[in-house]
Design brief:
- By secondary structure, this protein is an alpha+beta fold.
- It folds into 2 domains: about 120 residues, no CATH class; about 35 residues, no CATH class.
- It is built from 4 helices and 7 strands.
- The chain has a 7-stranded mixed beta sheet.
- The protein is elongated.
- The model has no long low-confidence stretch (mean pLDDT about 90).
């Protein structure tokens, strides 16, 4: 995945609109993250007096499993970022850097890093997901379970005797 900006860098233009459909070809990465291989990269590249900055976002589709009900679903994720476009990478910088080589930016590793940083820690199929019953395993979003609701922890049964 290469982003060509050679003409922009040599021109007098102050900004460049970017709207690219990129395809991830790393099968191991796709399998590990359960991603669709197509990623949309949009944004704008700005020139200032002493540097070039990319302000943009990536959008991708993720096949995920709900943390509450274990239902599989697809989720569209978008994440915004800002990166400095540099000729040589500065290892001491905390900023995201895109290195230009012969007027082109290699996007593979940058896109992967942005995706890793934006992956959700816990995915829900919807915000009011009820999950599954801890006793019978019924999906509470689809049906009401018939379990006895007043089950107690047997370790605390002796404490009931104190209330009598």
């Amino acid at each position: 995945m290469m982003l060509k900006i050679k003409k922009f860098l040599s021109s007098d233009d102050v900004s460049l609109i970017v709207n690219e459909n990129l395809a991830i070809d790393d099968e191991e990465f796709l399998e590990e993250t359960h991603l669709d291989k197509n990623v949309l990269l949009t944004g704008e590249i700005f020139k200032t007096d002493d540097n070039v900055t990319f302000s943009g976002k990536i959008e991708y589709t993720l096949a995920d499993e709900c943390a509450r009900c274990l239902k599989e679903f697809e989720r569209r994720i978008e994440t915004k970022f800002q990166a400095d476009i540099v000729q040589k990478e500065d290892m001491e910088s905390d900023e995201i850097q895109m290195v230009v080589t012969d007027g082109m930016i290699r996007m593979d590793e940058i896109i992967k890093q942005l995706i890793y940083l934006s992956l959700p820690m816990k995915s829900l199929c919807n915000d009011d997901c009820k999950g599954i019953c801890p006793y019978c395993g019924v999906n509470l979003n689809n049906e009401i379970c018939q379990c006895e609701r007043n089950l107690t922890d047997p370790r605390f049964d002796k404490l009931k005797d104190l209330l009598k």
